[in-house]
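step=encode ok
step=design start
structure_in=
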């Protein structure tokens, strides 16, 4: 289900949109003949006025971006992940000392949930490794939220400078008492902490030892 956030709603100082992190990864699609796509990151914004992005360019990026209309999309990882999108216009750009663009602030922002289930906030020590390679290194960290469909995993300091790709993984909890296969779907560097979103492989998870069994245990502990 797609919902709309209006500019009036965003005026509230408590609205979650105001808490979107600097550095959030952004996808820009120019509304030109080639539907040119660009990658960017959030530098800042003023509600109702402008949004500032640092962008990456390649051979397909127009030399002058001022005046282009564009569709902007990005993800917000929270207890319920959201995909946000809005239409905008590039009002100003600079190339020195960095490639920066100013966008008009949209009148409305469309958003929809990424997941069907709301995730439970928690902190469970766990170990993650590549699923198809027994000899691959293991990394310690914590599961910080979980549902039957997926989780967010925060790496420990040993993985501070690691790059993460969309790969099949295995998460081990309590030694090897509970082993949950899944796939990395997203990653984000928050300060010096690397966080990934993992989608569980439902076909390979059983009710007792998979995420559903773990969630049942957590609910019993909290009751």
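sequence_out=
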């Amino acid at each position: 289900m797609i919902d709309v956030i209006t500019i009036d709603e965003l005026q509230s100082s408590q609205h979650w949109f105001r808490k979107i992190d600097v550095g959030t990864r952004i996808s820009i699609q120019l509304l030109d003949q080639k539907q040119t796509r660009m990658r960017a990151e959030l530098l800042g914004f003023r509600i109702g006025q402008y949004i500032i992005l640092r962008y990456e360019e390649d051979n397909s990026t127009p030399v002058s971006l001022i005046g282009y209309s564009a569709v902007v999309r990005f993800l917000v990882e929270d207890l319920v992940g959201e995909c946000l999108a809005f239409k905008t216009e590039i009002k100003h750009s600079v190339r020195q000392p960095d490639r920066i663009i100013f966008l008009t602030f949209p009148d409305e922002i469309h958003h929809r949930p990424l997941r069907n289930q709301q995730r439970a906030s928690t902190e469970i020590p766990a170990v993650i490794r590549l699923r198809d390679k027994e000899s691959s290194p293991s990394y310690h960290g914590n599961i910080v939220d979980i549902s039957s469909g997926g989780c967010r995993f925060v790496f420990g300091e040993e993985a501070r400078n690691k790059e993460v790709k969309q790969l099949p993984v295995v998460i081990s909890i309590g030694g090897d008492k509970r082993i949950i296969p899944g796939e990395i779907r997203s990653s984000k560097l928050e300060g010096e902490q690397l966080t990934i979103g993992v989608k569980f492989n439902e076909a390979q998870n059983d009710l007792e030892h998979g995420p559903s069994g773990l969630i049942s245990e957590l609910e019993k502990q909290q009751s």
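step=design ok
step=annotate ok -> The first helix runs from residue 7 to 10.
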